[in-house]
């Protein structure tokens, strides 16, 4: 009996352990070791911090690194700003079928692949695209307008891609807020903005933080959207990692870049949790 | 004449084709405890939400201290509400919960601290300001929810079945406490409930509501002894009910032959009941006198003998079920706790009687 119990436990645990060790732990350890290698000759390596030094010494790398971080934070903030009213409407105002329909609408874009979705935006935004033609037809502009390949286009793409991951946790937390608590706020003399500030947002904080963390991670690690909508000069950090690994065959530097990205996201997530007074258990549990 | 704190005239609310509240009028004098009692779904919560401002009436008027509040949104009305599940703000501590309304009014910080301290003192929980909502017991939360409203000194406090979630013992205790708080704060309370004992114990006046209308407004005593409609007679307290045809009428006294063949004397208490009408008679189990022999009940004009079919022991509220020898349905009779009938058992023959005054008779609406 006791043995069978143990066997069941081991069997349940095995997939998790395999996943954690094979796909997460081992590659990261290996990548860390690679990032500490320096090529001194053909097939000769020495352990050093040279890769990290070249990351710090090269302004373009640092600039791209900082830019990616700032843009991701901005994309997260924008997604939150747009997603919150959407989630509030779905959780608190919509009823029955409308509610499920709206929820489904948030999900629909994810039925097609990210590549196709991004192409959709390209069709709309390119020089010969829908918006450009519309503007010309309306006589607002003289010639075709190129709306692709700039930071705004990247931002639009990032927000669009991440919306669902913000809306779902927000709907879940807002759903758990009893309507009568909001009514009590009004009854005691609260106005709309004060209820939002003192009651709704504090209640939704775990959802806001967990949604933000997920969206931030997705934006930071996004490769396709910045490249396709931002063009060759989009200066996204994942693009640097890609070119080091694939174009230049400089795995050592690529690995160092990868580690920098990991450290960056960990620091920002930790900082956000500290700043908002939330814990990982509260937001993810 | 003093202006009533709350006055509703011809209040009506329709949702589409169904009307939830139909022509309800009442007034609540200052400092009194008014209850609306009715089965669930009768529209009492709708009335409450209209007074609080969460629903707009289809027609009719609501006046508070003589001024119509129909145009005021909920956050501008001089009424506050204790919600069914209390709706304390879980994200704030107790002091912030109670101070919420004051902060919204722009009261200064030291003033808020003073007022919150005062009201906590009054509800007998002076040291809980720093605690979290979920650290309190059910009864304490109840008192905090009332304090949160009372600190704003509303003209009228609305209470929406606030005792529903408590267990029986605590509920009994809170009934007395609510009544004490009401007189301590000297504020008008409007209380809605489906539990008649809550309404009867606490209220100065009770409105019994059914299917969107008020059946009767009166003191607990009026509703209990002098119900004006068959619904009130059957909803407030328990009743034995006989349906039948009136065979003779003299003044308010009348005789009725029930469908099961019993001859009963009743009283119409001024209601129009005439010879040959279909009518119902309601008699309370506690109005029926139980006797061992016929001599015990000789002075009553309704006399029956029968066999005990069940003993329903429930402490002070124990009853027996009795099947009359002359036929008909079982009669519920309260069991006196004087010890006289302590050894009564199933199958015993007993005699029961009651005066015709206790038999409330209503003509049934035909058609």
UniProtKB/TrEMBL annotation, chain A:
It is a multi-pass membrane protein. PROSITE patterns: ABC_TM1. The chain crosses the membrane at residues 7-26, 69-90, 102-124, 152-171, 207-229, 249-273. Pfam families: BPD_transp_1. One of its GO terms (cellular component) is plasma membrane. Residues 65-272 form the ABC transmembrane type-1 domain. InterPro entries: MetI-like, MetI-like_sf. It is found in: Cell membrane. GO terms for biological process: transmembrane transport. Keywords: Cell membrane, Membrane, Transmembrane, Transmembrane helix, Transport. Belongs to the binding-protein-dependent transport system permease family. CysTW subfamily. This is Spermidine/putrescine transport system permease protein PotB. It comes from Roseovarius halotolerans. The gene is potB_1.
TrEMBL record, chain B:
Keywords: ATP-binding, Hydrolase, Nucleotide-binding, Transport. InterPro entries: AAA+_ATPase, ABC_SmlMolc_Importer, ABC_transporter-like_ATP-bd, ABC_transporter-like_CS, Mo/tungstate-bd_C_term_dom, P-loop_NTPase, Transp-assoc_OB_typ2. SMART domains: AAA. It holds the Pfam family ABC_tran. One of its GO terms (cellular component) is ATP-binding cassette (ABC) transporter complex. Its EC number is 3.6.3.31. This is Spermidine/putrescine import ATP-binding protein PotA. The gene is potA_1.
